[in-house]
Amino acid sequence: MISMPIHLRKMFDFLFPTMKKAAKTNAPSYLLKITLLGIEPAIWRQFIVPADTTLDRLHEIIQPIMGWHDGHMHGFRIGDRYCMPDGFCDNGELPESKQVLSVIAPKKGSKFFYTYDFGDSWEHEIVVENTNYSNPDWPYPVCCIDGRMACPPDDCGGVPGYFDLCEAMKYKNHPNHDELVDWLGYLYIPYFWDMEEVNTAFKIKRKTRRPTHIWVKVSNEPWPPKSKETVTATPKVRPNPFETKKKAAKKAAKKVVKKTTKKAVKKSVKKATKSTKKKS
User: Fold this and answer.
1) For 172, which DSSP code?
2) Is the residue at 275 inside a domain?
């Protein structure tokens, strides 16, 4: 492993203070609480993530835990620094894939913010409640353990639109009730939220998750390996329909010829026997 000179290391840490690597082996679990700001009663979730989780992965966890559909841009704010998805850091923002949770929020009580949909501007507060949390009842690294209230639907118009939506859903005689139900496709109930459904989704996602790396064993032997017995397979050729018709016609003609020759032989034999009988 090549070590970086001290002066370059100091300059690198000064320019990118949150890009230090966290240990990925036996990483402890963080207990986080995320709260959607500007709404009462509060919409919040309490969940567990590994300490070495990067912010791009944390975004993927927050979306289903809260109930968003990941159809808009997002960003994180850590103090006076902003983090954006890789490829969108045009104004000095830090890339999310390089920011590790245990570095940006190293202790209990650390706080940072997550914004989803810059049009509706849904702002969330994330607080570290425990830096070494254990939950023996849940063997998976990501788990939601508590929460309240359903997430607002995407594109409902931010906090003011959310309150208008709740008012319309509450009363069937509201002038916008039927229109909003048709738009959503279901009756939105703000007090209904199913934690088991969220955790089941994480369990299924982990079981069906594809590996991010493929390990290939390199050897000096030729590939594919040569077998002792070489088997030559005869390729299957699709028959030509015209040739099959010709063959069938030839076979039919041969059968006709055989039948006629047999009949002629029988007739000649009968005539010969009759003539011999008359002579005798």
Assistant:
1) T
2) no
Which range is least confidently modeled, 37-51, 177-191, 232-246, 255-269? 232-246
Cα–Cα distance for residue pair 67/124, rounded to 1 Å: 13
Whole-number Å distance between alpha carbons of 139 and 170: 39
Count: domains in the chain: 1
42-84 residue pLDDT tens: 999 999 999 999 999 999 999 999 999 999 999 999 999 999 9
Q: Specify if 257 maps to a domain.
A: no
CB of 96 closer than 8 Å to CB of 56: yes
Helix (H) or strand (E) holding 195: helix 195-207
DSSP letter at 147 equals E
Question: Is the separation of the CB atoms in 124 and 35 below 8 Å?
Answer: yes
Q: What is the DSSP string of 43-110?
A: EEEEEEEETT-BHHHHHHHHHHHHT----S-EEEEETTEEEE-TT---SSPEEGGG-BHHHHS-STT-
Please give the model's pTM, rounded to 2 decimal places.
Answer: 0.64
Give domain status of residue 251, yes or no: no
- Reduced to 3 states (helix: H, G, I; strand: E, B; else coil), residue 142 is coil
In a domain, 172, yes or no: no
Report how far residue 276's alpha carbon sits from residue 274's, in angstroms, rounded to the nearest whole number: 5
- Cα(157)–Cα(144) distance, integer angstroms: 27
